[in-house]
Amino acid sequence: MNAIQQVDNINQFVEVEAGVILENLHQKVKESGFIFPLDLGAKGSCMIGGNIATNAGGLQALRYGVMRNLVLGLEVVLADGTILNNLNPVLKNNTGYDLKHLFIGSEGTLGIITRAILKLNPAPAFFSTAFIALENFENSRELLNRAKIFFGDKLTSFEILWPAFYRLLTNENSGNKKVMPDNYPLYVLTEIAGSDRAIPFQMEVFLESALNDNIVVDAVFVQQQEDRKQFWQIRENIDHILVQHNPIFNFDVSLPVSEMEQYVAKVDAELKQNFSVVYNYVFGHMGDGNLHLMINCGEGNTDAKELVEKIVYAALPSTHSSVSAEHGIGLTKKKWLPFSRSPQEIAVMKSIKNVLDPNNIMNPGKIFYCY
Amino acid sequence: MNAIQQVDNINQFVEVEAGVILENLHQKVKESGFIFPLDLGAKGSCMIGGNIATNAGGLQALRYGVMRNLVLGLEVVLADGTILNNLNPVLKNNTGYDLKHLFIGSEGTLGIITRAILKLNPAPAFFSTAFIALENFENSRELLNRAKIFFGDKLTSFEILWPAFYRLLTNENSGNKKVMPDNYPLYVLTEIAGSDRAIPFQMEVFLESALNDNIVVDAVFVQQQEDRKQFWQIRENIDHILVQHNPIFNFDVSLPVSEMEQYVAKVDAELKQNFSVVYNYVFGHMGDGNLHLMINCGEGNTDAKELVEKIVYAALPSTHSSVSAEHGIGLTKKKWLPFSRSPQEIAVMKSIKNVLDPNNIMNPGKIFYCY
After folding, report:
1. Backbone phi and psi for residue A23, each to the nearest 5 degrees, phi listed first
2. pLDDT at residue A176, rounded to an integer
3. Which domains, ranges and CATH numbers included, belong to chain A?
4. ipTM score here?
5. Does B156 touch chain A if contact means CB atoms closer than 8 Å?
6. Stretch 204-263 of chain A: residues touching chain B, C-beta under 8 Å
7. How would residue B371 be classed by pLDDT, with cut points 50, 70 and 90?
8. Which chain B residues are Cβ-neighbours of A102 within 8 angstroms?
9. What are residue A112's DSSP bridge partners?
């Protein structure tokens, strides 16, 4: 059996082995005129099985959803060796419990994902990517609303970048081009895509109207693959942060868009209250309610970790948030699981873990401290 | 606490009690400029809790997804009295197992859903609804593809009606108007909606091009609420079938669009081989890969049930189908669960049922024969 089966052109799906590298799948389905829309920095090395086990998010979740929304069917091997075959591509299937959702995002603790049927989308022919500067956060919220209404499902990405992030990612050593001045209060990187030749024109109209209404203070947009890549490098080349600072503490939080501005300000203020040196690089998938923070509180200051974590998580709105939007719990966030999940929820999770893997042989030690 | 909480306008969600009637929710969120897009014939009596417990589908799943895709957070009471509170509106939350998906579609057998946070969509301002006649099934497939590409996320419904269905639902006693002649080989009812004033014009352009290319043989389209309602009555007033025939055997199957034509022909042929009188009314959500069949094999012939079920299900493609797309298993389809789910899957479902409800007090007797 091939690692990647023949694309089903009519019903728009493909069956793949879990060990297929995401970028290889991208290339393969492209030959049939489709895209598999999951897209993330690690695409050259991450595998489909891992993408499913961690319910990966990435750069186009706003338009196409996270991995959970792209999986139609699954094959999973359970702890007792049972092969659970649910390789069914139908969109609607209300026959008992939808078990695949239990395995998606379970980080390998309930079973080993071996094959999957994935939903494909027609490849868009035209793109336009814009780098935008704004006066304040409220305008970015207004811009996001306008973009959703104006572009509909042509809107594939809406990423926000706080100025410290933009400055660092376009500094002399970054290898990136400064596509606009680095002294604006806020930046947005947005992309639209579709089959419509008028895509670049639509971006122009959209930006012009936002400029006229003072929602936006500066904007550049590009269509060509090479130029778009340059824009995306500024957002994606986060390794550059790791070169500049050591240690870096990484965060991946969910919260309502309406809470973001206040949240970032609060984290900033509390970090500065507690540390004399603070670098807080904030960016993320604003359209999905998902921010990333990369924080350094002094060169070599690894001891800061615990307090930084406390500050970042305690500032979240208590019931309307998540300590892990797309990166999962793994080992390093086990301590913070109770922040986003109630004792009752964790007890139910553990009881399910127990019944499917009574000897705890499936990725032991992940997600929970004890089972 | 109110049965329906204040709509969160910015983050576009609403928190509701499970006992809220779907249509009341529709009216309430409309006041805030939103729609809750789940829409089905029973909206005047069905309740949100039941919609979630059965993972309801309906007329706009093509655009907005089924109930599973509209639920952000849930509150569930378990068999032991535990309240499982996951009333969290964030879009991305990878903190352990996504338990809500276990309860959605579990037909009340794992717990009682008491509250939910539901995703809202901005209310579209403009609509266009078209009734279309086609020469053959292949053209309807081509039309669906074109509609997806041309309209993008403005395409909210794409329903197919075989001619016997259209004829009966527009006959003298139906109360419906014949919006086009009833001797065409196939009919499609499609709707687009959006914020764009040009919606009716776009429908016109789309249909004109399809007529020119001989994909479509006849088409009428309307914009006004009253006219649209008339079109939808033809699709929705299936009680009229129950008045004309007794008994009627109801089916709700999923299968790839590429298999539909052959499938319906096969079921028809086998019914005619086995019964002297056959009425087979076929219609459904083509865009979702979901067909409904309403079958009568002679007035008063209730004995036909078993053979009719066998014919309808045996004709499905074995691994790429479902015996219940959106109606669930309940009592009447328990016998057919193994047709769509493997023994291994059913065993895992039962083990989960057992761990959450060891005394089998949650909606006992549904989905499985024994636990």
Report:
1. -65, -30
2. 96
3. 13-122 (3.30.465.10), 126-239 (3.30.70.2190), 245-340 (3.30.70.2740)
4. 0.95
5. no
6. 254-258
7. low
8. 97-98, 101-102
9. A77
